[in-house]
Design brief:
The protein is mainly α and 191 residues long. The protein has helices at 9-18, 22-35, 40-52, 56-69, 74-86, 90-103, 108-118, 141-149, 153-166, 171-190.
């Protein structure tokens, strides 16, 4: 980049990030944001690079800066919800998803995730396993895995959500929740 006044650093940093060169993307974004601190797109790319680099707390710091300046930035709320959800901070994730749904009524995926989190791990009445899952007796990793294997993504998500609520530090429950949510949203996108 020859022109220091150019905003071209952001797409270049994003290309670095997508190519797996996260450290270079982070450095380029930091350098560019030193000149253009209010460049939201660059800050969003920096947050994504931090996530790719395995540093979700640094990503949250960047997303917080965006949301302080632009509280109606649906993409920043969506990413913030995702980071909180993956960390097991479900109440915070839910708050950000509520904002996303208010800001972008057409975001079906966020609406679906919000409905799942709002259910607090309770299976719906129409669920084939509704009675069995009415209490915590069957809310186990094994039952969740079985539901997932059998294509019962809603039920699996509810079980892993309960397990994550009980123990937010359980990395395996959080990972399986993410897997169930991905399967659930992919199924809904296909229908």
């Amino acid at each position: 980049m020859r022109d220091p006044a150019s905003l071209a650093f952001a797409p270049l940093a994003d290309a670095y990030r997508k190519a797996g060169r996260t450290r270079e993307a982070i450095n380029l974004c930091r350098e560019g944001l030193g000149r253009f601190p209010h460049y939201t797109t660059a800050r969003l790319i920096l947050a994504k690079a931090h996530l790719d680099d395995g540093n979700p707390e640094a990503a949250l710091a960047e997303l917080s800066i965006i949301l302080q300046a632009s509280p109606k930035d649906a993409q920043a709320h969506r990413m913030t919800a995702d980071v909180h959800r993956r960390a097991g901070r479900l109440a915070e994730a839910r708050l950000h998803l509520e904002r996303v749904v208010k800001l972008d009524a057409g975001d079906r995926e966020s609406r679906l995730l919000l409905e799942t989190l709002a259910s607090e791990g309770r299976a719906g009445d129409g669920s084939p396993l509704g009675r069995a899952l009415a209490d915590d007796t069957f809310a186990t990793m094994s039952m969740g895995a079985l539901c997932l294997e059998q294509g019962l993504h809603d039920e699996a998500a509810q079980i892993f959500l309960r397990l994550t609520r009980k123990n937010p530090g359980d990395a395996q429950a959080r990972a399986r929740l993410e897997e169930a949510l991905r399967a659930k949203t992919q199924r809904r996108k296909g229908s």
